Amino acid sequence: MNRREFLKTASLALAATTLTRSKLFAQASEPIPLSKKYVTCFYQLSKKSFATLSGPDALPNGPQFEHIFTVSYPGTTAHKEAADMVHTGGSSFKFGLCIDLHKYKTWLTDSEETVKGWCKEFRQTCFDSGADYISFNEFPPPAPQRPDMHARVAMILRDLYDPGDGKKLPGVFYFTEEGVEPYRWKAGYTPDLWKAIDETSALVVAEHYHTPIFMYDHGTPEKYADHLSEMTEFLEARHDPSIDEILRDKWAVLHSSYFGTRDSGWQGVLADKYNLDDVRKYVQFCIDSTHACKYGANRLSFGPLETREFDDRIVQVLAELLGKDARAWAKAQK
Description:
Elements: H1 3-29, E1 38-43, H2 47-53, E2 65-71, H3 80-87, E3 93-100, H4 112-129, E4 133-139, H5 147-161, E5 171-175, H6 191-200, E6 201-208, H7 212-216, H8 221-228, H9 230-236, H10 241-249, E7 251-256, E8 259-260, E9 269-270, H11 276-291, E10 299-303, H12 313-333
Parallel strand pairs: 1-2, 1-10, 2-3, 3-4, 4-5, 5-6, 6-7, 7-10, 8-9
Helix pairs in contact: 4-5, 5-6, 6-10, 8-11, 11-12
């Protein structure tokens, strides 16, 4: 090889190395979309619960993860201290302030101007709080069969997300359990509702508050996943582009994380009947059944993390098992 050939070969090698490094740098700097991350989403919160979930060996921080803490408060005032607390966990930790539809008693009959007014006010509350998400809480039980409710919810979602001021605020949308029972939708499927949910929401959460007995009666996590997937199968059959995107990129199953002495609508685990070993088995069953679902296998949601007569020892179990699961998922993606 003469000097000219050597220099040409060296130049090509240097160019290839530079290009490879550029590609690697570009790949490293590109943000990972939420749909490709390991996502956890929680409803309600306490300082102690957050300290546990954000502690060592708990929920990991990094570009492959997102942990969303959505919280409902009495009234509609700002809660910057809560957002600040969540953000101390790192860039993966996000805060969502809930707008509770039931607080607006005449939401269905108010004029559009009135609705736009309180949507604008709550958006400002979210910005004042430093919220990353506005959480729509929640699609009311009779709504699946009510097209008039569909139209009004679609309008509210769009006004909360972007009233035209240039500042978009993505949402976390919560369905009550009645809202994910397919038979309730047979007389009320409205494409524009799903289009609005898709346009405005980063995550769509389907509540499934069940007891261990109900879950274990299905036999295995895979069989229980069949129950969790009944609504997604119904929606898949609509062949609606907005629904397809929701299912693929945004759908998340919410399991009960209630552990306490009060037999309530949260279902979950009753402390007078189950011990901590039982709690561990229950949480792992929830995780495994989520992974067995066709949609949202990498999106795990639990609630509540605080309520009356709540035994927060379950939060330590959640922190340990979800932390381990998240790290295993991230490792498998490499």
